[in-house]
């Protein structure tokens, strides 16, 4: 089961097209632990939403429109994290139908690569507990370039 791995990974999906239209799917995505979801659309003026960490929430990201790059770091110390942590990145595209899993213990940043891009985010923590787990860092905390 993916939650046991506790390392970020890409869950591959696919797209089927025929005369009736198109179906995007990610058949290996399991919804057992999902509590809620939301859709993120960054503004054209601020295409980078950074950095938000989660000590206990697991996240799953799926691009439903355009292209988005998700950056993430494994936080070494929640009170005073190192500024030189390794940033990893995965590009998600609506034309590829993949889900990025980021387990608890990571901070993430979401960068729109095309105007109008939309990202669906699934969370394993109920909304009633989200405030206790939301750790924000300054936008320049870790460099994505």
Keywords:
mainly beta; 145 residues; 5-stranded antiparallel sheet; single chain; 1 helix; globular; 46% strand; Jelly Rolls
Task: Classify the helix fraction into a percent range.
Answer: under 10%
Q: What is the strand content?
A: over 45%
Poorly predicted residue ranges:
none
Number of helices: 1
Number of strands: 12
Explain this structure.
The chain has 145 residues and is mostly beta strands. The chain has one domain: Jelly Rolls, CATH 2.60.120.10. The chain contains one helix and twelve strands; from the N terminus they run βββββββββββαβ. The protein has one helix spanning 127-133; strands spanning 9-11, 14-18, 21-25, 36-40, 48-54, 59-65, 67-74, 88-93, 99-102, 106-112, 118-123, 134-136. A five-stranded antiparallel beta sheet has the order 1-9-6-11-4, with no helix packed on it. A five-stranded antiparallel beta sheet has the order 8-7-10-5-12. The termini are far apart.
Structure summarized in a few sentences:
Helices cover 5% and strands 46% of the residues. With 145 residues, the chain is mainly β.
Please give the structural blueprint.
Layout: E1 9-11, E2 14-18, E3 21-25, E4 36-40, E5 48-54, E6 59-65, E7 67-74, E8 88-93, E9 99-102, E10 106-112, E11 118-123, H1 127-133, E12 134-136
Antiparallel strand pairs: 1-9, 2-3, 4-11, 5-10, 5-12, 6-9, 6-11, 7-8, 7-10
């Amino acid at each position: 089961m993916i939650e046991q791995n506790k390392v970020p990974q890409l869950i591959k999906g696919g797209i089927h097209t025929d005369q009736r239209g198109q179906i995007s799917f990610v058949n290996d995505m399991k919804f057992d632990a999902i509590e809620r979801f939301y859709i993120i659309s960054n503004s054209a003026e601020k295409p980078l939403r950074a950095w938000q960490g989660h000590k206990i929430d697991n996240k799953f990201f799926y691009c439903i429109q355009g292209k988005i790059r998700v950056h993430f770091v494994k936080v070494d110390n929640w009170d005073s994290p190192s500024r030189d942590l390794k940033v990893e990145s995965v590009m998600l595209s609506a034309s590829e139908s993949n889900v990025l899993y980021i387990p608890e213990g990571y901070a993430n940043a979401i960068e729109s690569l095309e105007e109008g891009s939309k990202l669906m985010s699934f969370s394993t923590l109920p909304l009633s507990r989200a405030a206790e787990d939301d750790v924000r860092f300054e936008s320049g905390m870790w460099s994505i370039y």
